[in-house]
Each structure stands twice: as structure tokens, then as C-alpha cells.
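User: Show me sequence and structure for the first protein, then do the same for the second.

Assistant: Starting with the first protein.
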Amino acid sequence: MYTDKKNILQLVALLEAHGVKKIVLCPGSRNIPLVHTLSTHPSFTCYPMTDERSAGFFAIGLSLNGGGPVAVCCTSGTALLNLHPAVAEAFYQNVPLVVISADRPGAWIGQMDGQTVPQPGVFGTLVKKSVNLPEIYTDEDEWYCNRLINEALLATHHHGKGPVHINVPVNEPLFRFTAEVLPEVRVITRYQGLNVYDRDYKELIERLNKYQKRMIIVGQMNLIYLFDKKYSKLLYKHFAWLSEHIGNQTVPGLPIRNFDAALYTMNDEVQEKMMPELLITYGGHVVSKRLKKYLRQHPPKEHWHVSLDGEVVDLYGSLTTVIEMDPFEFLEKIAFLLENKTPQYPLMWENYCKALPQMEMAYSEMSAIGALIRTLPEQSALHLGNSSSIRYAQLYSVPPTVEVCCNRGTSGIEGTLSTAIGYAAASDKLNIVVMGDLSFFYDMNALWNGNIGTNIRILLLNNGGGEIFHTLPGLEMSGTSHKFITAVHKTSAKGWAEERGFLYQCVEDENQLLEAMKLFAQPEPMNQPVLMEVFTNKNKDARILKDYYHQLKQNSGGSEK
């Protein structure tokens, strides 16, 4: 029988799955659930050692003899500190040493409880990875714990070998052994390139070909990659390709951009039908919360993430495989390895999304963005502010020749304008910035420099505050809290813009918008930068957006499918 501590059960199951066979066990009380479970499991050869300092070096010797990872397990407090010399040696000798330390629950650290020191991160830069496992009470705790252990064990042999530290808080009672078997656990694997001489990846290709419902999601990529036609034709028909505007031209064909709206219209039955069996991702951040929620609730059987750094990125909670290589090289490698049979799944997504009605909106923030996008010069760069602007832009089709930029690394509002002006300073294109009032006024000092060129045009959406916060589901605000949360104001950019040499345009209705847009969006160079300030009513904006989604669902027929 094994311990009832779920974080320990996850750890032991993953140690076995990742090929750890030898474990050095040190005495103590807090680590009894660990020691008992490890020593009871038949897959491990265990070695008792009293002195932790000696135990660490003993484990190094075991690893040096076989080359594989070896674990050493100790109790809490200074027992762990005695492993420090061995950890340092393992780091500089590139030995895959797995240090497992039992710990008190976090609430008792620093409270004069016995055998307590701050254990997480105690080895600093002398380990390749240090993780502090959660105690497991929810499904999310279990997913998080599983991911951390996978990350740590994968790090023992990533870009060279070395030690890792896994800290395991253990609450009382310590001596409850009720688990008969180890749980089925998710094992994350990593492939470092697809070499034709490497037999290991053949199994990967076989897995790829067995799935008929294959989806690729492309996150933010600030570049253009034009696939050779011989690859494009083969790749495009085999996958449902989803990408937002910030993915730019990094797909072998035209991706589905309106998937967020599509997901909104789908009932439960349609969502089940449209879920992928295999998900492949590359690129950076994804804006759509609805897509993240959908895939977390409808997890694929496998999720492969392709990136040059080979880091574990488990955005949808179902990661199984990390492929460490350039994503375009990966796609071109697999193009000729795909079975000739064309699956129906990509067409299902394409046809569903094509059938969504295109609806016009009344004068609002959204219609202003739509008016701009419909008249965008084909050779231009579009800079989108965070929060509302980037989400509303997704409602419209942006020409594929337009570069789309946005600070989605942290999704903050503080530097949208500064980043765009910096980009424009080195650009020979027309650079158009779309942003809300809070983003603009927060970063207004971006205009306080001598680097602003005539290739800058700013569409400022001013509805008197950060009203997107007011539309969040489940958030009911009083008059007082509303003032603070949405940052209500009565500020205009007119004086500041004109003082800084901008041509200022004021827009307060649909007719003014269409007239002003003729000059704002003209592709010809002008002799000064332009700022168009579009004033809207925040309450009307929220209502128009709500009505849009209501009509979308009604007109799509998604609720009846």
C-alpha cells in the first residue's frame, strides 16, 4: 500500500515513467510517506544512507556508473542543506541528480515549527530546475503538480545534463497508507529535432497519422514566413488552422480567424463534434479566452508544442509532447510524411466559420475599428492596443499583407504607444495605432520625444474610461467601485496632439467617422502625423456588442445544430 498524498503519488509515478530506477533514501519523519512509497514500489532499487552529505555524493556515483538519472530523498530542514555540496558537484559535472525533499506545509515555515527552513529555491543557480509541488485538493492542483514534476524531470537532460530539485510539502497525518496502486499520469516527452537518422521520431509520425481530427493553433508571431508551394498544398489540407491577426503570415494558406465568434455560437453537441484529437501549437500568446476555455473543457488526446527553446508550455492543460525545433522546419519535415488521405475535419471548421453572418454595427468603438480595417492600406503596419482594441479588431478581416503588432507578452497597457512609435521610427511603412483612452493617456509621454515621424496615425477610441471591465461577466459594481475600476474620466487628447504637431480629427458620429477616415486611411504620405479621436458612449458600446453576439448566435443557427 502506498501513501494517500496525491502529490507524492504523482511524483513516484512520474519518476518511474521518466526512467529513474535508483534512489538513495535518507531517514526522517516528514519524508516517511515518500520513503515508504518509493521503497515499496518494485520498479526502484533503493539505497539507505544516514548522512545526507554522503548520500548526495553516493547518488552521483550511482549516476556516473550508469549515466541515467538518480534520485536522493531527504526529510525537511537542515537535512536538505547538507545536500548542497553534492548538488554543486552534480551541476558542474553535469550529473542528472534528482533531489527530492519533504517539507512542512507553507503556512508553518518561519513560525518556529520544528525542522523548518525556506526550502524552495534553496540551491539557487546550482540546479537546472527547482519546483515546489502543491498539495493536491482540486483537479487544477493535480494538473499543476503533474506539470511541475514533468518540467523538473525533463530538465535533467535538456541542453546537457544536471541536477534538479523537487520540494514536496507534506501535511499531517503522515502515516496513512491507503492507495493500492499508483495513478495513471500524464507523461510529457520532448523531441529535440527530427533527424532522419533518429529512429525515435518514427513513433511520433505514426501517432500523427492515426488522428483524423488535427488542429494547429498559431500564436503571436512578429514575422512573415512564406511556405514553398510544395509544402503549402500538402500541409494545409491536413489540419484545421486557427490563428488570430497577431499570428501574421505564418500559416501555409489562409487560417480561420473568426473562431472566437464561431465558438460562441456552438452548442454543446457542436463543440463536441468540432474538438480535435491532436492539437499542435507554435508561436506565442493567444488572445481568445473562449478558445482557451473550449480546449481546456474539451482536451485533445494529445497536444504537441513546437518551439526553438523546447520549454514546457501547457496553455490548454493537455500537453503531451514538446518538439524542440523551428516550427517551420518541423512542418516542412512532416509535410511529406503525412498520409495521402485528406481528412474531413479541416473542412468542417472552414465551412462552419464561413457560414457565420457578417453583421454591421451601429456607431461605436467596434464600428470605428471596422471602418479603419475596411480601408487599411495593404502595405501598412497595424498596432493594436490591449484589452478592447485587439479583441474588437478580431471581428473583422485584416488584409494578409498588413503586419499586425501588439504587446501581448504581458498584455499590459503601459507601453502600447511607445512601442508603436519605436517600431515606426525604423519603418518605411505607414504605421497605424488603434488604442483605447486609458492606454493612450497612460502612455501619453510617448509623444514627448523627437522621434515621431509623419508615418504615424493614431485612432484613439475615447469612451471615458476602461469600460471593458464593466462588461466582465459576474462583475456587479456599485457607483463608487465603478469609478475606481473603470477609471472614469472626461479627458480629450486634442490639446496634447496639436501641441505635438499632429493633425487632429474629432469624430462624434457615423457620418463624421466615414468622412474623417478618407484622410486618415489614405495610403499617400502626409506632411504630419494624424490623431483621430473617436468619442463614443460606453453604455451604448456595451449594449451594441451584446446585441451583436446575440444576433450572431440567432442568425448562425448554432443553437439548433
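Switching to the second protein now.
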Amino acid sequence: METKYIFVTGGVVSSLGKGIISSSLACLLKARGYRVTIQKFDPYINIDPGTLNPYEHGECYVTVDGHEADLDLGHYERFTNIQTTRANNVTTGRIYQSVIDKERRGDYLGKTVQIIPHITDEIKRNVMALGKTGNFDFIITEIGGTVGDIESLPFLEAVRQLRWELDKDCLCIHLTYVPYIRAAKELKTKPTQHSVKELQRLGIQPDVLVLRTEHEIPATTLKKIAQFCNVSPDGVVQSVDAPSIYKVPLMMHAQGLDQIVLHKVGIAPIGDPDLGSWRKFLDLMDSATEKVTIGLVGKYVELQDAYKSINEALFQAATYCGRKLDLRYIHSEKVTPDNVDSQLEGMDGVVIAPGFGQRGIEGKFVALEWCRTHDVPTFGICLGMQCMVIEFARNVLGLTEANSTEMAPNTPDNVIDLMEDQKSIHNMGGTMRLGAYDCRLTEGSRAAKAYGKTEVSERHRHRFEFNNEYRARFEEAGMKCVGENPATHLVEVVELPDHRWFIGTQYHPEYSSTVLSPSPLFLDFMKASIEYQASKKQ
């Protein structure tokens, strides 16, 4: 079949959940046997979100091929169980950079470079790049921002052109908000009408409307919206607030979103999507009654999206272990020797979060010493693993001034040091060790047992590494280096075998954790936390 292109736009307000709707539709189409991928086009000028502050953009997600991407790509992978790449996330910055590079090379033969056609043509080329591989039946393209934003205009113009060029192989889904005015006790459709009119003014007629709402929308109101927006009544779907994002695919299927989309691109739906494994996960989620309490120690804990992939990996692991996740956020800047008992007691397990920079680092050391001496299941990720190493060096090896050269360039004991291939790099963006690398685990180690194998591949995002000059001293004192890159001998995993569960990974296993393929390491950590919880009751 010819590749079909689906565009997802948003109106009225931002943060409506275009990524979740796109992911849910992809989940349904994949469950019907179609080959699906999703891509995100972001209107900001940054080349990628790698240098963006988490306060600005939330989590920076990393693809297997080493691209720093929008966090929505995490949703795409978690819902579809399909890995994304650099081609799945494009920013305005990348578009303009590509066009300027072509102009510098003389590709435009001296012509004046303009928004139309040069920028829009480059957007269209990127939109269709994945389709031209022949690997996908459906390409879902999410357009970031809100209709009416000046930054999104070139993307929407490219969509308008593609609608004409692709004809029946293309459709547009527009996500809007239907607010409920409590004083009037009424749902208001006018914002949706205005949003669709703005889209129409740009030359795009949506084929399907998805209406975000906190309240059920009556059939008469849905009919009114369809009429005023020139959309067929069967093309209006509502997305009521759900208790979990993982229920959205089933809610969309119940309203026939996947069937509507198939009909509109000329495909007759056959049977129902195979959602057996997805429903099993939801059944486990709904049937869980007992809680497991996990503390997440980090400096961005007040931001709900800063550790998004870790949050979801923990939730998935807890669900598969038959528990409800009680995730407690602990601000690392506020952890001190005087209050660490009250901050961490009652935790069944503790995660030391990744990050960069000095802020909050001492609180992580205090938390790690407490967890190590109290034998609490502890999981350190990236900087969290490096903090494990530093804390152990200071309090077990007696290297009281041990540190990372990131925090203390002149430390006498640089147990964490800048990677050799990073020393000549000055640009910040896209220059870290990024993407999937192989890791060889020591036979019989806790980490190897968790994975059920000794050869794994996980994604990275870091500049600093364990200093192998200290490796023998750590091993002799009880901290084992049980995972390393076979090519570079970079230490990837450390653990304390004489503890319940005390493991640090230089890589980010949360990036590869999905609903249908949860991270083995997170699962093992969760099992250890539940066992520890049970031991406290005895």
C-alpha cells in the first residue's frame, strides 16, 4: 500500500496532549498490523533540545542513534514499542540550518532563498523522508505549538501543500480544548470553532476533531461542533480526562478513532486491533491494591516532566510487579545530614536521578551514604551512578576530597573524569556521548541476572566517566565494576554485591522501557524494593 500521512495539529491552548493522541493512534494502527512511526516537528529555533534547561523544556529524550529529542518521542516509543531515530524529531533550527547549508554550497544556483518555497520544501522533504524508506504504512506527524503561533506558520503551510499533493493519502487531525465554565455550568464550543477557523484560514480543513475536555460532551454539542467546523459528525471524537495516559488508546478505540482514520484514507477496517497485551497491562494496573514507595532524589523534582522517562519506567515496573507506585519526590538541595532520616525513612527503594552541574550534588551524597549504610535498594542513573562512586570513595576508600572534575576541576582524586574524546570539544550542543552503546556485564552479577544475559545495549547522555585508574581500589573495597563497554573499557555499571540492591548505571535504561517491554533493570529494582518492604514488616 501507498504510505499514508497523518498530521496532528493543536489549537486553543498548549499541552493538550497531541503526543498522547498521536501515540494512541499509532498504538491502535500497529495493533491492527500496520507498520507505523511518529515524528515530531518543533517550531523552536534550537537545533535540538540538548542545551535547553529542563525548566524550559522538561526531559531531553535520547534516540538510539544519538539524537537529543523532544520528550514526546519517549511517549511514541512507550506506546508503540518501536525505536525512534534522528529522523523522528525535526526543529525549525534544523530546517533553517539545512537550507542555509544548501545555500552556502550553491545548491540554489544563486536564487533568493525564501520561506516559500525553500523552507517549506525542506519541511516537506523531512516529513516524507521516513515514508520514502518503504518501511512504514502510516507516518504520523505531530506539529508542535498551537495554531495561530507565528513560529508554526511555515510548518502549517507545508502541511497545506502536502494535503493537495498527497490527496487521499493524507489527512489532518486537529486537537482542541472544550472548556467547562463552572459558573454557567456549560461546555463552551466557541474556542474550538475559532481554532478550526484559524486552521481553515491557513488553507487546512481538518478531517477529524479530537476534543479535550474534563466533562463528557453531549451528542447535541458534538453535532453542533461538526456542523460549525465543516467536519462530518463521525469525525468528531472526545478525549475526556483519563486516570492514566495508558488508557487513552482504549478510549480512542471505543470511539472508533482508528476506524475513522482508516475509512478516511480509503482503507476498510477488518476486525479489531490486537490489544491483548495492552489490556493485560491495564488489568494489572487496575487490580493493584498494595503500594510500593520509591523516593526520587534530584534537583528538578518540582517539574513533572524533568524525569518523565524514569517516572514511567518506575510505573511500568511497579505495575508488572502487581503494585501501585507511590513516587515521592525528594529535592536534593534540601537533603542534609540533619534531616536525611526524615527525608528517606519509609522509602522501599531510592533512585538517584541524572543531571548536570554542582547544584544539589551534596544532597545526593548524603542520601547515598544513608541508603548504603541502611541497606536500602538504591538505583543511580548517569550522574546518580557517578555520585555513588564519589560517595563510596569519600566514605569507604577514605579519599575525603574525591570528586568529579565536572564539579571540582582541581580535585586531588578525580574518581570521575572528563572522557578523553570530550577534552577537545568546546561546543555544548549535540557533542556528548549520545545514543546506544554496547555493554558487557560480568557473569553472575546482579545486573546480569536482571537482564538474563551479559551482552546489552543501552542509551547514553554524558561527558564524564569512571576513572579506571581507581578501579582496582574500588573493587578491593567491595564496589564491583560489573559492566563495561567492550571497545573502550569504559565502566558502565557498578554494584555492591553485599547489599540488597545497590546498582549504578552510566547509561539511561529508562529510555528503552516501554509498556510492552519494561526495562529488566527497573523490574529487578522494583522486585528488590518490594522484598525490602516485606522484610520491614517482619
